[in-house]
C-alpha cells in the first residue's frame, strides 16, 4: 500500500455520535421512582420493613456478584439492575417476613430467574415476581402474614372477598394505610413515582393503562360487586395492582417490544388478574398474572410485527 | 398535503452554530489533484486522457461508462501525471486520474444558453448529463437518470431537499442564503421537464432565515412553494422528506418516481442550473469544515480533486491532533484514517473531532427498552433485527422487515446499552442484497 502517513485516525462504522442515556441511568431512575413507595412502606410498617428491603437488595447484589465471579464473567452489578430487582422484591414482601426468607428470595430472583438464563436482557420472567411467587409457594404462611400492630392482618382484598365492602375504606387504600406488602399499599406514592418515570421517558402509559383499563372492564362484568365505584377503586388500589402495572408489567426485558404487542400484553395482564381475583381461591393475582403474561411475550411479539413505513399490509402478505 | 414531519427520529446536538453564519470561502487548489473515476453510483467513468496530456480547467477527462454513469472534469489546468488506484473516503481503492496543477486555472470556454425555456427537454437532460451532475447530497446517483423516469407526466412533485438534518452541516444552508437565485432557477429548469409537477422546497425550521428568503421569492410563483419542516433527524432522508412534504409513502422496493416525486439536494439543483444555463460542469462544490479540532471552522468552496489535507490547511489546520475525521455528517458519514484522500462530487463536509466518543463506549446487554423502536423512522424493531443479524438468521431478518432499513443510525444513537444496532443491520442487509444479486 502506498499510504505514507504518520498518523492514522480512528475508523468506525457510522454513526459517530451517541446519546447520553445509559442502562445504569435508566435503572437509577427506576430506583428513584420507587423511593416514595419505599419510604411510605417504612413509615407504615416500621423499621422492620426497611431491614427486609435492605436484606433483599443486598442478597440480590451479592448473588449477582458471586455468580459472575464463579462463572468468571465481568461483573455486571454496575448496571444497577440487580438493585432494582432487590428493591422490587423487597417491596413485594410483607414486613413480617423472616429475614433469611427475604435473602432466599433475592438469591432465587438473581441466580435462578436471571443469571441462569443469561443475565440482564435474557430472562423471560420478571426476577422479582418470579422470586415472590417462589416464596408464596414455599413459605405460604409467612408470605401472607400481615399481622403488624397497626393492622388486623387481613389485606383489604381478602376482606372484600371474605366479608364484604362494608369493612373497607377506599380512601385509606388510596393513601396506603392498610395491611399488605411493604410497597404495594400506597397508591398515591406509587403513582407519584410512576409519574416521574413517565416524565423522564423511562416508561410510557401503554402497558399500565391497558392493564388497568382491561382489569376494570373485567371486574365490572364478572366481579363480586360489578360496577360499584368503591369496589372498583378498592380493587385497583389493593393487591399490588398499581405496583405491578407501573413497575413490573413495564419491565423492559419481560414485556413485548412491538407497539401493538405492548397493548395486548397489558390486556393479558388485566384479564388474567381479573380472572384470578374473581374466580381464584386467593383474593390477589397480580404476580401470577404478570408472570403468565411474561411467558406469552414471544407469541405476542411474533404476531404483532409492525408493518414497515410505506409497506402496505396486503403487499406484505403477498410476498 | 404534507404533514411537515414523520414518525420516529431523534434530536442530536446539532452543532450548526459553529459555521451557520460564516459565508462561503473559496479554497484554491495547488499541486496534485486526484480525480477518482467512481464519484457516482453506476459504472466507473472511462478516462479519455493519458499520462503527459495537458488539460484545461473544465475539460472532460473521463467519459460516462454507461447510461447509469457520469463524466468527470478537471478542476484545474495542468498536466496528467498518471492514472492509478488511489484511496477514497469510503476506504476503497479506486482508479483515479492524477493531475498536477500549473496554478494558472486556464479555463475552457463553456457554451452558454440565454434562455433555457428555448431548449427542448432532451437538450436540458443532455446538458445535465454532459456536465457530470450527480446527487451531491452524498449518494451520487447520476441526475440525468433520475430526471428520466418512465412517464414524466406522472411526476407531480419536485422536492428540493433543503432539510440538511445531519448535525454540524451548514453548507446547504449557506447555499440557500448566498445562491438563492440559482437554487430557484434550478428548480424552474426541473419543473420545465415535468409539466404536471409542482416544486416544493422542504426546509427544516431551524433555518428560518433561508425559509423567509426563499419564501419571499417564490410566493408569487404558483408552481413553487416552501414547506417548513419540523427539525428532526433524519428529516432529509428521501422517504421521510417525501412523506413530510407530500404525505406519500414509499418503501425500499419503490423509487420516488413511483409516488410521483423526484427529490434533489440543494447542491445538485444549483449544479443543474449552472450546467444548463452556463454549460459549466461539476468541478467545484461546497463543504462544511467543522468539529472541535479545527482552527477555523467554516463553509468552503473547493475544487473537486483537492485533498482533504489542503482543505484543512485552508481552515487554519488543527488546534489539536484529532482522534477522528469524518467525511459527511456524524450520523451517516465515513470516518477516514488519512487526510491524503481527494474530495469528490459527494464530499459534503469534513468533521474533525478531538475525541472519538464512540471508541470509548462500553457495550452492554440489550434490555429491550424499545428506544430504538421509538427512534426508527421506518417503524422497524431495530433491536430485534440486530439480534437476528448477529445470529445470521436471514429469514427472521427479512420477516421483520430488515431490508426496509435506511441506515440512518438513529437506533445506535439512542441505545442506552451502546450497542452497534445499525452497524450489524447494515452488514446483514449488504450480505442479503449481494446474495440476491448472485441468484
TrEMBL record, chain A:
The modification FMN phosphoryl threonine is found at residue 155. Its EC number is 7.-.-.-. Its cofactor is FMN. Pfam families: NQR2_RnfD_RnfE. GO terms for biological process: electron transport chain; transmembrane transport. It is found in: Cell membrane. Keywords: Cell membrane, Electron transport, Flavoprotein, FMN, Membrane, Phosphoprotein, Translocase, Transmembrane, Transmembrane helix, Transport. It comes from the Bacteria. GO terms for cellular component: plasma membrane. It is a multi-pass membrane protein. The chain crosses the membrane at residues 26-43, 49-67, 76-93, 99-117, 189-222, 229-249, 261-279. InterPro entries: NqrB/RnfD, RnfD_bac. Its main location: membrane. Part of a membrane-bound complex that couples electron transfer with translocation of ions across the membrane. The complex is composed of six subunits: RnfA, RnfB, RnfC, RnfD, RnfE and RnfG. Belongs to the NqrB/RnfD family. This is Ion-translocating oxidoreductase complex subunit D. It comes from Lachnobacterium bovis.
TrEMBL record, chain B:
It comes from Lachnobacterium bovis. HAMAP family: RsxC_RnfC. Keywords: 4Fe-4S, Cell membrane, Electron transport, Iron, Iron-sulfur, Membrane, Metal-binding, Repeat, Translocase, Transport. InterPro entries: 4Fe4S_Fe-S-bd, 4Fe4S_Fe_S_CS, Ion_transpt_RnfC/RsxC, Nuo51_FMN-bd, Nuo51_FMN-bd_sf, RnfC_N, Soluble_ligand-bd. [4Fe-4S] cluster 1 binds at residues 366, 369, 372, 415. This is Ion-translocating oxidoreductase complex subunit C. Its cofactor is [4Fe-4S] cluster. The keyword Repeat applies. Its main location: membrane. GO terms for biological process: electron transport chain. Belongs to the 4Fe4S bacterial-type ferredoxin family. RnfC subfamily. Part of a membrane-bound complex that couples electron transfer with translocation of ions across the membrane. One of its GO terms (cellular component) is plasma membrane. The complex is composed of six subunits: RnfA, RnfB, RnfC, RnfD, RnfE and RnfG. The keyword Membrane applies. GO terms for molecular function: 4 iron, 4 sulfur cluster binding; electron transfer activity; metal ion binding. [4Fe-4S] cluster 2 binds at residues 376, 405, 408, 411.
